[in-house]
Amino acid sequence: MDDTGRGDGDRPTREEIDAIMLAARVFVAIAAQSVAEVNEQVTLPQLRVLVMIASRGPLNLAAVAQSLGVHSSNATRACDRLVTAGLLHRSDDPTDRRNLVLELTRDGRHLVDTMNEKRRTAISGVLEQMSPARRRRLVPLLRAFARAAGEIPDTKAWALGWTTEQPLGGTAPDGSAA
């Protein structure tokens, strides 16, 4: 082992890997809890549809099916249930009457926003347990970790069940153009 605490050159140590796995368990638990709180209202695939539309804006059924990687009939059934539940609004596309436009209703937006706010509150509670100095040092480290992982672009964030701060343009949380 060299003086930086590394064993085999630039390879991550077991301690580094274990620390990231421990943090990942916290993030997964926070995400799972926020999903569990809306689980009685929607299924996970339905939640993915809502988050996708919240992140990307109005979509048609073909875009939903393609993004979910499912047959259009499966996407139609999921969207029909969301329309019936009052979480999604379906209307004719004014530019192409063969297409339907899917948009969140006020209740659909509220469900997604509530889920995300619960995540923010839980993360804030964890961060409050850390000193301000450690929190400041944590931000660039987490951004570097996300970049090293191939940081998921805003257009794909819905696939994991969360939205971005600036889903339809503006500046991404790392300061880059969204």
Tell me the layout of helices and strands.
Blueprint: H1 14-38, H2 44-56, H3 61-68, H4 72-84, E1 88-93, E2 96-104, H5 106-127, H6 132-148
Antiparallel strand pairs: 1-2
Task: Please describe what this structure looks like.
The chain has helices spanning 14-38, 44-56, 61-68, 72-84, 106-127, 132-148, and strands spanning 88-93, 96-104. With 178 residues, it is mainly alpha-helical. The chain has one domain: Winged helix-like DNA-binding domain superfamily/Winged helix DNA-binding domain (Arc Repressor Mutant, subunit A), CATH 1.10.10. A two-stranded antiparallel ribbon has the order 1-2. Strand 1 (88-93) and strand 2 (96-104) form a beta hairpin. The model is unreliable at 1-6 and 163-178 (pLDDT under 50). It holds the Pfam family MarR. InterPro entries: HTH_MarR-typ (IPR000835), Tscrpt_reg_MarR-type_CS (IPR023187), WH-like_DNA-bd_sf (IPR036388), WH_DNA-bd_sf (IPR036390).
Write a short abstract of this structure.
The chain has six helices and two strands.
